[in-house]
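quick one before i forget lol
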Amino acid sequence: MEAPVLTAAPGAPLISFGGVHKSYGDNRVLQGVDLQVFPGETMGILGRSGSGKTVLTSMLVGLTTPDRGSIEVAGLQLSSFKSEADWRELRLRTGYLFQGSALYDSMTVGENVAFPMVQHTDWSEKEIARRVAAKLEQVGLAGIEAMDPGELSGGMQRRAALARSLALDPEIIIYDEPSSGLDPITGDEISQLMQDLQQALKVTSVVVTHDLRLLERVADRLVLLFEGKWAFQGDFEEFQRSSHPEVRLFLHKQAPQEDAAK
């Protein structure tokens, strides 16, 4: 069982946010956000904790809905989706790497990677096992199917979670804080893996992070979310030259303490 391929018209973005608003009570998290992500591009979304980065990307898979505005993926208007069945095809083509990996402790690593295949395909056990082995090898974890998540280091857990995200050969990958909780060396290894996968798979990626080191390595473009709007859009070199006060705070690591919630 295969989901249809997501395609955009020539020269058109694969993902498009138009005037997106989202509030929680009096907290106006997003205030008219526009963003376009093109096929094969890696877009970084930067911002303080609580700025709405994850709120924005969770809208791409229906975990959150905007109060106003439009979101299109491959020409599909997401506001027209009314049921889980409407969301199914898009979710099958979207890999989501959750912050902290979110592996199931009750399953082995192999069972974790196999889970989307078991849930959403009619592949045989032999085919699933073959694909699990291939996905683990793709992230540098060949042969660890029988291990439990608790036996893995933080970096290995992140790789295993990424293998699960790749299980159904997605065309869009959303990375939610992929280097969070990792030491700089392991974070660099994850950055390199993301680059390698992008080059090999030609997927469209959206990377939510506060890690400038990671974005410098992986992002084609990046945006900085501040007070519900974009404080910056452009590539990393342009980011370094920006005079916006929030950009300067990020670059000099002088941002004040932030709220814990995203």
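fyi The radius of gyration is 18 Å.
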